[in-house]
Amino acid sequence: MVIRPAQKIDAHDLACIYVQTWQDTYLSVIPYGYLSSMSIPRLEKAFFDELSGNRIVSFVAEDAGTVKGFITGGYERNGDDVYSGEIYTLYVLKNHQRRGVGTRLVAALAHQFDRSGIFSMLVNVLKLNPYRQFYKKINGLYLKTKRQPFAGEAMEVETYGWLDTTLIDRP
User: Fold this and answer.
1) Domain ranges within the chain, ordered by starting residue
2) Quick check: 169 pLDDT over 80?
3) Which residues pair with 69 in a beta bridge?
Protein backbone atom coordinates (compact mmCIF):
# COMPACT_ATOMS: atom_id res chain seq x y z
CA MET A 1 0.00 0.00 0.00
CA VAL A 2 1.39 3.37 -1.03
CA ILE A 3 0.29 6.63 0.58
CA ARG A 4 0.68 9.57 -1.78
CA PRO A 5 -0.72 13.07 -2.27
CA ALA A 6 -4.07 13.04 -4.04
CA GLN A 7 -4.21 14.49 -7.54
CA LYS A 8 -7.06 15.88 -9.61
CA ILE A 9 -7.10 12.64 -11.61
CA ASP A 10 -8.13 10.84 -8.37
CA ALA A 11 -11.42 12.76 -8.08
CA HIS A 12 -13.52 9.96 -9.59
CA ASP A 13 -12.00 7.34 -7.27
CA LEU A 14 -12.58 9.58 -4.25
CA ALA A 15 -16.23 10.07 -5.22
CA CYS A 16 -16.75 6.31 -5.67
CA ILE A 17 -15.09 5.50 -2.33
CA TYR A 18 -17.09 8.23 -0.59
CA VAL A 19 -20.43 6.87 -1.84
CA GLN A 20 -19.50 3.22 -1.22
CA THR A 21 -18.28 3.79 2.33
CA TRP A 22 -21.31 5.90 3.23
CA GLN A 23 -23.67 3.27 1.91
CA ASP A 24 -21.75 0.48 3.68
CA THR A 25 -21.49 2.32 7.00
CA TYR A 26 -24.72 4.27 7.33
CA LEU A 27 -27.38 2.11 5.65
CA SER A 28 -29.40 1.68 8.84
CA VAL A 29 -28.36 5.02 10.37
CA ILE A 30 -28.89 7.77 7.79
CA PRO A 31 -32.23 8.19 5.97
CA TYR A 32 -32.19 5.96 2.89
CA GLY A 33 -33.27 8.84 0.65
CA TYR A 34 -30.09 10.73 1.52
CA LEU A 35 -27.86 7.74 0.76
CA SER A 36 -29.62 6.83 -2.47
CA SER A 37 -29.40 10.41 -3.74
CA MET A 38 -25.60 10.52 -3.48
CA SER A 39 -24.26 11.35 -6.92
CA ILE A 40 -20.84 10.16 -8.02
CA PRO A 41 -20.64 12.74 -10.86
CA ARG A 42 -21.56 15.60 -8.48
CA LEU A 43 -19.08 14.40 -5.85
CA GLU A 44 -16.40 13.88 -8.49
CA LYS A 45 -16.75 17.52 -9.53
CA ALA A 46 -16.60 18.65 -5.89
CA PHE A 47 -13.44 16.61 -5.24
CA PHE A 48 -11.89 17.82 -8.49
CA ASP A 49 -12.57 21.43 -7.48
CA GLU A 50 -11.13 20.84 -3.99
CA LEU A 51 -8.00 19.21 -5.40
CA SER A 52 -7.59 22.11 -7.86
CA GLY A 53 -7.24 24.65 -5.06
CA ASN A 54 -4.87 25.13 -2.15
CA ARG A 55 -7.40 25.00 0.69
CA ILE A 56 -7.18 21.29 1.52
CA VAL A 57 -4.51 18.67 1.98
CA SER A 58 -5.37 15.23 0.65
CA PHE A 59 -3.69 11.84 0.49
CA VAL A 60 -4.77 8.55 -1.05
CA ALA A 61 -3.93 4.96 -0.19
CA GLU A 62 -3.19 3.12 -3.40
CA ASP A 63 -2.69 -0.60 -3.87
CA ALA A 64 -1.64 -2.03 -7.23
CA GLY A 65 -2.61 1.22 -8.94
CA THR A 66 -6.09 1.38 -7.40
CA VAL A 67 -7.15 3.89 -4.76
CA LYS A 68 -8.52 2.11 -1.67
CA GLY A 69 -8.94 5.04 0.73
CA PHE A 70 -8.33 8.74 1.22
CA ILE A 71 -8.10 11.55 3.73
CA THR A 72 -8.63 15.30 3.42
CA GLY A 73 -7.96 18.04 5.90
CA GLY A 74 -6.94 21.62 6.44
CA TYR A 75 -7.43 24.46 8.84
CA GLU A 76 -10.10 23.92 11.50
CA ARG A 77 -13.31 25.42 10.10
CA ASN A 78 -15.16 26.68 13.19
CA GLY A 79 -12.61 28.95 14.87
CA ASP A 80 -11.54 26.61 17.67
CA ASP A 81 -9.08 28.35 20.00
CA VAL A 82 -7.01 25.21 20.69
CA TYR A 83 -7.14 23.00 17.61
CA SER A 84 -5.90 24.62 14.41
CA GLY A 85 -6.16 21.66 12.01
CA GLU A 86 -9.04 19.40 11.09
CA ILE A 87 -9.55 16.05 9.42
CA TYR A 88 -12.39 16.75 7.01
CA THR A 89 -12.82 13.25 5.56
CA LEU A 90 -11.31 9.82 6.08
CA TYR A 91 -12.68 6.88 4.12
CA VAL A 92 -11.24 3.42 3.50
CA LEU A 93 -13.04 0.72 1.53
CA LYS A 94 -14.48 -1.93 3.83
CA ASN A 95 -12.26 -4.79 2.65
CA HIS A 96 -9.14 -2.70 3.35
CA GLN A 97 -10.08 -1.58 6.86
CA ARG A 98 -8.28 -2.84 9.97
CA ARG A 99 -5.01 -3.13 8.07
CA GLY A 100 -3.38 0.14 9.13
CA VAL A 101 -4.49 2.11 6.07
CA GLY A 102 -6.46 4.69 8.06
CA THR A 103 -3.61 5.10 10.53
CA ARG A 104 -1.14 5.68 7.71
CA LEU A 105 -3.44 8.23 6.08
CA VAL A 106 -3.86 10.14 9.36
CA ALA A 107 -0.09 10.05 9.90
CA ALA A 108 0.53 11.45 6.40
CA LEU A 109 -1.93 14.29 7.02
CA ALA A 110 -0.46 15.03 10.46
CA HIS A 111 3.06 15.11 8.99
CA GLN A 112 1.96 17.58 6.31
CA PHE A 113 0.22 19.66 8.97
CA ASP A 114 3.46 19.74 10.98
CA ARG A 115 5.36 20.95 7.91
CA SER A 116 2.74 23.69 7.48
CA GLY A 117 2.89 24.88 11.09
CA ILE A 118 -0.34 23.17 12.20
CA PHE A 119 0.46 21.23 15.37
CA SER A 120 -2.99 20.30 16.69
CA MET A 121 -6.06 18.88 14.99
CA LEU A 122 -9.53 17.55 15.55
CA VAL A 123 -12.12 15.47 13.76
CA ASN A 124 -15.91 15.39 13.94
CA VAL A 125 -17.62 12.04 13.43
CA LEU A 126 -21.23 10.91 13.64
CA LYS A 127 -21.82 9.21 16.98
CA LEU A 128 -23.66 6.41 15.19
CA ASN A 129 -20.58 5.68 13.07
CA PRO A 130 -19.43 2.24 14.25
CA TYR A 131 -15.84 3.10 13.25
CA ARG A 132 -15.51 6.22 15.41
CA GLN A 133 -13.52 4.27 18.01
CA PHE A 134 -10.67 4.27 15.47
CA TYR A 135 -9.83 7.82 16.57
CA LYS A 136 -9.43 6.69 20.19
CA LYS A 137 -7.16 3.86 19.04
CA ILE A 138 -4.82 6.37 17.43
CA ASN A 139 -4.76 8.46 20.63
CA GLY A 140 -7.47 10.95 19.76
CA LEU A 141 -8.86 12.52 22.91
CA TYR A 142 -12.65 12.60 23.15
CA LEU A 143 -13.58 16.30 23.46
CA LYS A 144 -17.36 16.64 23.23
CA THR A 145 -20.65 15.54 21.74
CA LYS A 146 -22.92 18.02 20.00
CA ARG A 147 -26.12 17.84 18.00
CA GLN A 148 -26.02 19.02 14.42
CA PRO A 149 -28.60 19.08 11.66
CA PHE A 150 -27.83 16.43 9.08
CA ALA A 151 -29.96 14.84 6.35
CA GLY A 152 -33.08 16.47 7.77
CA GLU A 153 -32.47 15.24 11.31
CA ALA A 154 -30.58 16.40 14.40
CA MET A 155 -27.73 13.92 14.85
CA GLU A 156 -25.10 13.59 17.54
CA VAL A 157 -21.53 14.26 16.44
CA GLU A 158 -18.48 13.41 18.55
CA THR A 159 -15.29 15.44 18.39
CA TYR A 160 -11.84 13.94 18.98
CA GLY A 161 -8.62 15.91 19.09
CA TRP A 162 -4.86 15.73 19.20
CA LEU A 163 -3.03 18.57 20.97
CA ASP A 164 0.29 17.61 19.40
CA THR A 165 0.21 16.05 15.95
CA THR A 166 3.93 15.28 16.14
CA LEU A 167 3.01 12.48 18.58
CA ILE A 168 0.87 10.62 16.04
CA ASP A 169 2.66 7.44 15.00
CA ARG A 170 4.31 7.61 11.63
CA PRO A 171 4.61 4.04 10.33
Assistant:
1) 2-119
2) no
3) 61, 92
Considering the domain delimited by 2-119, tell me its CATH architecture: 3-Layer(aba) Sandwich (3.40)
b/e per residue, 30-54, with b = 16+ CB within 10 A? beeeebeeeeeeebbeebbebbeee
Q: Checking phi first, is residue 139 left (phi over 0); if not, alpha (psi -120 to 50) or beta?
A: left
Contact 148, 155 (CB under 8 A): yes
Range in 60-64, 154-158, 164-168 with the lowest mean pLDDT: 164-168
Rounded Cα–Cα distance for residues 63 and 37 (Å): 29
The pTM of the full predicted model, rounded to 2 decimals, is 0.92
Distance CA 149, CA 6 (A): 30
Q: In Å, how far from its chain's centre is CA 14?
A: 11
User: What does the CA dihedral 21, 72, 110, 134 come to, rounded to 10 degrees?
Assistant: -20
